[in-house]
Amino acid sequence: MKQEVFCNGGNNYAFKHPPKEYEDACICDTRDKKSEAPVTKKEEACKIVDGILNGKSATDDIDGCKPKENYKPWNCDEIGSLIKKEEKGACMPPRRQKLCVSGLTREDRIKAIEDIRTEFIKSAAIETHFAWERYKRENREANEQLQNETIPYDFLRSMKYTFGDYRDIFFGTDISSCLFIKGTSNEIKSKLGDQATTEKGGKHPNGKTRQEWWKTNGPDIWEGMLCALTHGVTNTEKKTKIKTDYSYDKLNQSKNGNPSLENFAKKPQFLRWMIEWGEEFCREREKLEQNIGKHCGEHSGDA
């Protein structure tokens, strides 16, 4: 455009600042900005848990998982095919044989990255719900302990073992021979990826590796387990205190030489199950010795 107006004023002034043809380009701070996509807020773990447990009784099936009835004995490689052949010497706990995984292994469940978090929270919560109902049946004082804001030691240990088993499914380190679980692990791997970038240099969805995902969402899975455990606690203050005292952050601190929750869950599954077997053996032996002492005392007059 030829500039012929040299008097100040009007839109054609030759020395106008900025020049008319560049006016729109220079007012960057006032130009229309593209609307940013809204950030999807994650649903709270307890809300997810409430959605699947509300209205359910201790005997109702939930999302394909059943109440814990009769546990089978420990399954070792020589008496069954629940464990991969290469894992010689491993024994699968009765608890693990009935682990709730139906929500994780169905083909239609994990369609998007967000579904991974949801299905793990659901499965771990249902597992905890049924395991707690069984534990209460076998331990009369259990519910009273929980109402007094204490998770029974043995049940807390079983929760930690269960948390570790779900972690193995997520990372593909589960040593069971279940092809459905293997398929779930592979599906997770394909959606999250092992590396931060693809072979072509692009970023994986969310730019997160599986390790980063677990660091962010693993605590939510544990919280979901606590929500399921305290679902029947009607006193809000007590429920909050239990979830606070046994939170992921609290248990993820090493104390008195005991590993943190995450470090315990990281142990190889083979080793964790071996530790679990040893603990159960010691408990059963102690019960047996107590029964022998009781019966001997009844017949001989001394224990």
TrEMBL record:
What GO cellular-component annotations does this UniProt entry give?
Answer: membrane
Residues covered by the Duffy-antigen binding domain:
89-245
For molecular function, the Gene Ontology terms on record are: host cell surface receptor binding
InterPro entries found in the cross-reference section: Duffy-ag-bd_sf, Duffy-antigen-binding
This protein is called Duffy-antigen binding domain-containing protein
Q: What is the lineage of its organism?
A: Eukaryota, Sar, Alveolata, Apicomplexa, Aconoidasida
